[in-house]
Amino acid sequence: MSIELIGRRPVVAPEDLIAGLVPPPHFGRASFDSYAPDPEHPSQAEALAAVRDFAAPHLKRFRSRKGPGVGLYLDGGFGVGKTHLLASLAHALGPSRAVFGTFVEFTNLVGALGFIAAREALSGFAVVCIDEFELDDPGDTLIMARLMRELTDAGVCVAATSNTLPDALGEGRFAADDFQREIQAVARVFTTVRIDGPDYRHRGSLAFPEPATEAVVATLAGSPRAALASWPALLADLTQVHPSRYGAYVDGVAALALTDVAPLEDQNQALRVVALVDRLYDRDAVIAAAGAPLDSVFTAEMLRGGYRKKYLRCLSRLESMAHAALEHTRPV
């Protein structure tokens, strides 16, 4: 039965926000043993060892907190396994000792519970795992700088992933020079571990399939747990849903069939698409799209700007999801 995506208005109860801070289905079985470092890039094996070492003290059953918490920051390009390692850390410690969420999920937590209540809730864990750490606006910078400081002061450790070095957060996004004190405060929390290597999803240049035909889109739309939407209608609908709720927005969607795809018109649209694609990818969804090629949705100007790395990660994930859709629609 087709899922009606357009018009969904998910509401997530505050008490469910903490319970939902676990690795997403795509990384539901991630473990240190299942991470396969590329031998041509020794930094991957070094990062695996660093995360294992970071986890070790927290695996001791009766560990008591002594002194401030410490931070580990996994920095590297997209597709090198940063999220896999972070999810492995969360799984190794278990949900009673570690929480896992994207950066936007933690800022939403503060918005929903209030700063004090969010800090108190997170202070009950040994480790807070923050995926896709980024400072996209001044408000987030102030909130996260304070949250990192107060959590580590309380003895909580923080592990994060990003494709931007801590002291360069916010660069090209807003007047970051005016917030250097806060940015440096965030940077001081972390020991940075660099991970090099190509994107594991394709190990080379992106190679998108041709835009889907109407027949392919119809076939995918008829598959179990599929949603059908026109690109313009989807973009308009996303403006009515806060990005922090995009996970709930696509819950239950295993396949997204799109029609009338066209290049995005502005950066706000583009960032909403990035957030949506991330949540679909987390849920192992596939995408078939008719219209303009998916690799043309971000304009050349967007790809030169401050959000370049976000858009490139999104394209990498879109390419993987589009190829997966071909398997779903290939005649038996």
TrEMBL record:
InterPro entries for the chain: ATPase_AFG1-like, P-loop_NTPase
Domain of life: Bacteria
Naturally occurring in which organism (per UniProt): Demequina mangrovi
Protein name: Cell division protein ZapE
Alphabetized NCBIfam families for the sequence: ZapE
GO-annotated molecular function: ATP binding; ATP hydrolysis activity
SUPFAM superfamilies assigned to the protein according to its UniProt record, in alphabetical order: P-loop containing nucleoside triphosphate hydrolases (SSF52540)
Alphabetized Pfam families for the sequence: AFG1_ATPase
GO biological processes: cell division
Keywords linked to the UniProt accession: ATP-binding, Cell cycle, Cell division, Nucleotide-binding
